[in-house]
Specification:
The structure is a homodimer. By secondary structure, the first copy, chain A, is an alpha/beta fold. The first copy, chain A, is about 40% helix and about 20% strand.
Chain lengths: ~280, ~280
């Protein structure tokens, strides 16, 4: 496995692979790998000849007061894990390599960013869409892999790729959970043992919502209120949002139909956690 | 020569050319060809195996009250002219093909768009950058050709391509002029015979500015005022801007140094014309 810091060096590696008719898979990450990341890399390994995983804590997707500086990093451990699942190249550029001082081009994906995290983190998805497009242009992969835990991010990237005719297949991958249900996240490392227990309220809420639907709840608003009350029962949890939305447009829905996403953002102590599930009506 | 309306059809043509190791050149246009356009196509013909010229009057770069509806169109004549200079494929998609109803992704190129036309046509360069990136992603050319008459457009595209790591060479081509000096423009077709004569005030101003510099003028402000007075002497002309700017950043300059651009926007009757020149200090 190679570790590459420079865009031009990575371009050469990918270009010689492509000249040899090899397919290329990209797994864009911010590092501090967990099983969720590794599941993306394994899928990329199965489906491509050359697998590139990028590690870049993208400053322009963090707002003022967010956790850019304390975001967890461990490149040595990440490199070992990536190699263990068959990644060929780690691409880990500096901020200066990605954003020279003259940098001034940004992507705005409208409408779909009005809800959920987009509504609470101004500029976040602008930063995400911009860095992902840069990575897609640098690597020019056949396929790029994204986890469904960041569901809105996935939808923003799919929208951007379709709108701008970017020649890549975006491959969504299911959320990977701890055995007790907690969705894997690099930010779980912030949790104290007590908070770690409280954090289960997110996955429990998703299960509870499915139960409510199975029990006959058909109003999006009722579902939301029930889940808000359920979470309020957990003393360490503070709700940022509980949203019942259409799974494609991310617009609020009044009736629970087939394509419903329940998206949660809950603070446990100082840690902001998200989770979601597609809910089905039997 | 083929004429193609659908993105997928164009992708197939380009992709089979590329599989045969052919280089691809793109000339993005809004049609109604003049010698300026043809000079881009001739350059593309010389430097590439496959030449694609796109014709698309891009609605999202026109503001309210601008000339989208009356913008001149003549596809049959354009096709003949393109074929005469060796273009292989005309790509002329519909607005619906380029912007389906779900479309919601836009590019913002900041700073460089604060001056000149960017300051007067809000959203114009957003529309330009977005459509050019779409065309680059659809065609994936080795080289794309842009005229220097739309100097700020060229700079916006160069900035966007560098910032987003788009793998293409942007090739700037010099302004092509009528024998009396008028810069070629599809919008020249709007001019009455009398207006056509008045329109020479633009190219004359550029020559006058070089004379002033050769005569010792070193202040950007003085140069601007002299040219404004010069244009005021032409009864049919109404100044939108006369700007003395740095040729890379497009920021105003107080002293006339080596890398100065004089950019003009003058209305002749109802027709908005632009012209520019790089000025040199002997």
């Amino acid at each position: 496995m190679q570790t590459v810091h420079k865009i031009e060096e990575l371009r050469k590696i990918v270009s010689s692979a492509r000249n040899a008719d090899k397919s290329v898979g990209l797994v864009p990450t911010m590092g501090y790998f967990h099983e969720g990341h590794l599941s993306l890399m394994r899928a990329a390994r199965r489906e491509n000849d050359l697998v590139v995983a990028s590690i870049f804590v993208n400053p322009i997707q963090f707002g003022a007061g967010e956790d850019l500086d304390k975001y967890p990093r461990d490149l040595d451990r990440d490199a070992q894990l990536a190699e263990s699942v068959g990644v060929d190249v780690i691409f880990t550029p500096s901020s200066e390599e990605m954003y020279p001082s003259s940098f001034s081009t940004y992507l705005d994906v409208e409408k779909i960013t009005d809800a959920l995290c987009g509504a609470r983190r101004p500029g976040h998805f602008r930063g995400v869409a911009t860095v992902v497009l840069k990575l897609l242009n640098i690597v020019q992969p056949d396929r790029a892999y994204f986890g469904m835990k960041d569901y809105q991010q996935l939808k923003v990237i799919q929208r951007m790729v379709a709108d701008l005719n970017v020649p890549v297949d975006i491959v969504p991958m299911p959320i990977v959970r701890e055995s007790d249900g907690l969705a894997m996240s690099s930010r779980n490392s912030y949790l104290s043992p007590e908070e770690r227990k409280s954090a289960l309220i997110l996955s429990k809420s998703l299960a509870r919502a499915q139960e409510l639907i199975d029990g006959g709840v058909t109003s999006g608003e009722e579902l939301q209120h029930e889940i808000e009350e359920f979470i309020a029962g957990e003393p360490l949890a503070k709700i940022e949002y509980v949203s019942v939305v259409h799974s494609v447009t991310l617009e609020s829905v009044s009736n629970v139909t087939d394509k419903i996403l329940l998206a949660l953002c809950v603070h446990i102590g100082k840690t902001r956690l998200i989770d979601n599930a597609l809910l089905t009506r039997g």
